[in-house]
Amino acid sequence: MAERADRKTVSLRAAAAGVPVLIPVAISARHVHLTESVIETLFSDKYRLHTHADLVQPGQYAAEECVTLVGPHGRIPHVRIVGPPRAVNQVEISRTDALTLGINAPVRESGDLAGTPGIVLQGPRGSVTLESGVICALRHVHMCPEEAARLGFKDQDRIQVAAQSADRQTLFQNVVVRVSPTYRLEMHLDTDEGNAAGLRSGDPVVLQ
Amino acid sequence: MAERADRKTVSLRAAAAGVPVLIPVAISARHVHLTESVIETLFSDKYRLHTHADLVQPGQYAAEECVTLVGPHGRIPHVRIVGPPRAVNQVEISRTDALTLGINAPVRESGDLAGTPGIVLQGPRGSVTLESGVICALRHVHMCPEEAARLGFKDQDRIQVAAQSADRQTLFQNVVVRVSPTYRLEMHLDTDEGNAAGLRSGDPVVLQ
To answer: I want to staple A50 with a disulfide (CB 3.0 to 4.6 A). Which of A64, A126, B134, B187 is the partner?
Structure first.
């Protein structure tokens, strides 16, 4: 019950600003975060990723390089690597992808990988079997501490966000707030969630 | 504003029953409804579909027969025909499928096919080019007139339905009510919507 009361409080504080708080959406297509070691196995020794496009979150970029995901029931080619390399491998797919691959990926926050299933990655040089790291990303809103303070939120708060599509109007509940000085205000959904709500990247959603 | 007032009224009437109204969900995977003529072209003269599984809606069945959907960007094999044959061809896909195929299917009610895009269907005997009929189905709840009367709804009312998944809690808004003596109480979502809300066929959702 304490959790529910908290949620009400943060919503009321946000509403007190008087005008709707619009949050731009980013629809995350399936992608992988890889360690330098795995990138070297898949591509070549000392391989460095090339930037295809910078993402809104500062320092993050879609790489030119792609891999193929291989699961027990199917494979998905042309899956983008998101750079820079990380300390831990993480594969983010939709539930639709999970069914195609035959991998029962749980809904998790980024980095919360204990007990998650593994997968095989194929690159131009070779393959790597990851023992874990496959998730469906938990829907979340990025913001910097100044935005969080303005809206009355703190890291890990749960909020509600409305998508106002004419024919697929949807209220996303239990959305995690993630606060860091490196973040810019943006809601992250996967392709299933974006499609279900009739959203495209860059569309605004409304804080409730 | 009249529409909003109506919506409130129907919700209040439903709530007056005192207990939550649970509606079983059916997640509709991509499927096609075909005319006898198209079935004959794809399979053989005088061809009759075989029942793979009866659906909850009386008289409807998933056929054993499947077709391949072919769009300008991709193809999707093993797409089930739903019988019995109909007077008009209709192809129901998710937005994820629409992107795979490269066909910009609009969100529409079943049967509302004016101005919708076409597609190529392949069967074991031959191919058929449909000039229109490809849609993403508008989310809806089927019910019979007795259930509608009990809940205070009429055909084409718009309602809200809550999916209470722990990590993908979602309120579907602007959901169409469809009333017919041949219907049984059931909410129909496509795979994107089901995945986005962490639902599987048979799960209950709650009328708000």
So the answer is: A64
Residues 130..189 of B with a Cβ closer than 8 Å to A: which?
Answer: 138-139, 166-174
The Cα A200–Cα A197 span in angstroms is 9
B195 touches chain A (CB under 8 A): yes
Q: Strand A134-137 vs strand A90-92: parallel, antiparallel, or unpaired?
A: parallel
How many whole angstroms separate alpha carbon B23 and alpha carbon A145? 41
E strand or H helix at A190: strand A186-190
| Number of H-type helices and E-type strands within chain A | 5, 15
Inter-chain residue contact B95 with A195, CB threshold 8 Å: yes
Closest by CA to B89, choosing from B48, B120, B52, is B120
Contacts for B172 with CB less than 8 Å, ≥ 6 apart: A169, A170, B139, B160, B161, B162, B163, B189, B193, B197, B205
CB neighbours (10 Å) of residue B100? Answer: 18
Distance CA B91, CA A96 (A): 19
Longest dimension (CA), chain B: 56
B177-186 average pLDDT score = 96
Residues of A in contact with B174 (CB under 8 A): 166-169
* Distance, CA of A33 to chain centre: 11
How confident is the model at residue A40, as a pLDDT?
Answer: 98
